[in-house]
Amino acid sequence: MIDFDKRSVLLGARVAGKHEAIEQVAGLLASCGNIDPGYAQSMLRRESVANTFLGNGIAIPHGLPQDRALIRKTGIAVLQTPEGVAWNPGETVYLVVGIAASSDEHIPILTNLTHVLDDPEIADRLAVTRDPEEIVAALRGELALREKPAPALDLSGYDQSLVVTVAGEHGLHARPATFFVDVAKTYDADILVEYDGRAANGRSLASLLKLGVTTGRQIRLHAKGPQSQAALAALKNAVDAGLGEERGEPGAAPSSGSGHGFVPTTDAHAILGVAASPGLAIGPVKQHVHSRIIVEATAKDPQRELTALRQALVAAQENLHNLYEEVRARSGLQKAAIFHAHEAFLDDPELLAEVEAGIRQGKSAGFAWRQVIDSRVAALERHDDPVLAGRAMDLRDVGRRVLRHLAGVVHDDFVLPDTPVILVAEDLTPSDTAMLDPARILGFCTAAGGPTSHSAIIARSLGIPAMVGAGPALLAVADGVQAILDGDGGALYLDPGQEDLAAATQARRKMSDVRDEEHAARFQPALMRDGTRVEVVANIGKVNEAGQAVEAGAEGVGLMRTEFLFLGRETPPDEEEQFQSYKAMVEALAGLPIIIRTLDIGGDKAVPYLDLPHEDNPFLGERGIRLCLNRPELFLSQLRAVYRASAAGPVRIMFPMIATLEDLAAAKRLAEKARIEVGAAPVPIGIMVEVPSVALMAPEFAREVDFFSVGTNDLTQYVMAIDRLHPSLAAKADSLHPAILRLIRQVVDAAEAAGKWVGVCGGLAGEPLGAVILAGLGVRELSMVVPSIAAIKAKMRTIRMDDARALAKKALACRDVKDVRALPLP
Predict the structure, then answer these.
(1) Is residue 222 flagged as an active site residue?
(2) Which of 208, 297, 770, 784 is the Cys-Cys partner for 788 at CB 3.0 to 4.6 Å?
(3) Are residues 24 and 112 in the same domain?
């Protein structure tokens, strides 16, 4: 906290206008030794480029960044004007908080100001107080803000209601609340959820979480609108069915029994916590600290800030979507579901309305977003239920994700260390945990958190030993200290003796032998025992992932998503930028083939500069090849870049969302035009099999393409009529359903008859049962997320093609997906 006391407060000032108010507060700063007098002019010039009005009668004038040399030491001063001073049209200020910031030491003051802003009664009291210590206490965070009484429930118009009991192990936490919200949003009805004398918007995730509904408690649902009766019936069914929660997972803490048998025999110093993910880790400790994200408090142009907010939300949603897909493919639907819940926060109407209101009051998008998120996080952290309080980390994770896109310069990305370590942190967000690489993060310990946190769940799915809730003593451990982490017992042993190190090493070696064998053989081809080969390649979406794929044993890239170049920006990438990115990927593969999928964005991946209209059914709208054909110059620019990059290595082009032969013909015509314009040689051209019409007309399409790549995720949602991200239905959108397998078999038969080949680039290719069945169906290429490559190759080497065909035949004959999943692997 900076040095701030009553000497920096002037009460009862009378000023003629904003100009004089700024001069007086600058004089206070100068008299306290914070600034040179010339800094006052910088503060005045700042007002011409930014609005420093915060709201609730508070303004925070400060100088321009280029004048920081005039700041002697960071400080603040407060000018109270009980009669008020007109700041901007419609804005009256009673507290002028002048800021001289040479660093970020003043940030806590701004944080405390946001709490004052949330309580108009406190702001009104400070505007007229005769005690300067009261203002000092408020800005130091020492003034207790009165809890506001809950508003009386307004049930006018709500003509339907019913009572339900919330089951599940942890009540209405993030995932079941997301499930509830998604069901509510599918109906034309307003939903009010009543609990313990309070109410929440049933279509708002943040609002629901604030209720803090624990397991076994009753809630009353109220509805009004054209579909109110149907909405209540659907919500009752959803609640009765458990709101998408699997019994025993997620949230179940690991067993307390040890799976490795290691018990220390010496007196190594131990820090005890809560077991979160089983296993042993041995290595040096490395502390991880999140950096601060700094944003401007105010902005001059609210419309520009609203646009920036929308772009940041789109970029964050795309990040989360990709993370969801990666974790889902690697660890399953339930492990990935939290990231869908995170997406729901980004679409929360109450939260966004509050942020937009702050922006219209003159706050920057980043400041308004952080203010609202911090307020919601604080509300969640106050819950008595530890699981619900733990969900504050999820909201904080989402908040930081968006804030990184709103800040000018940010150094907040999770950076993996160069050498293997046991990571120690105050806490880890789910996003941090999902990015952990077991090759470099041997295990992790956190001072906060619990075994039911989503980070703990993801750690278990990755096989990373983890301990949580170890307390502040953990944060005092120095980097480099040798340690043994017992994830089963919830203990971190510091400076262990040689005897304990040897015993732990032996126990760990036994557990990791299988994994090590798979990793060591990752460069060997996926040759079945009878000599049949299946190509195992990677799905990637960034330039640096090409090299990672090769290192993981990939035999090429079966799907390179190009969307990363087009999202989170105000203008599309030009041809040269795209060419350099594609060329870098091709070169990183060192002669291995790469399939570059052309742009696949649309209603579900909004891009502001394309000015796409809102679509009620984005997955059925203008996306993929449809969008590209409607914007030929955008498409041609990408195609020219791809053809230019093909000179550096074996490139194949793949079109997404093809539904008709006419779509394919038009795309091929533009591809040929681009090829001729750059003078490139022809390359193989294939299509994604995502739309059922392509699978049903595979013989006709096979005559027009060089290969097929089945996108099982989208094909499944179109065949089953289930949004694959829908929390209440997504579990039923299983690509191992016999209907999907039979369509894939049709595509393979048509391709083989035409002398073409079929690959699969959906999530099904990355799971052992799916991979074996696909190989038995005749799929020649399996493309998957990088972490799955070594294990799938190892599995393929243990079977014969006859075994795979027999398994596929049984799967095709099954009546439902449960029967398929019950089939034993050969």
Answers:
(1) no
(2) 784
(3) yes
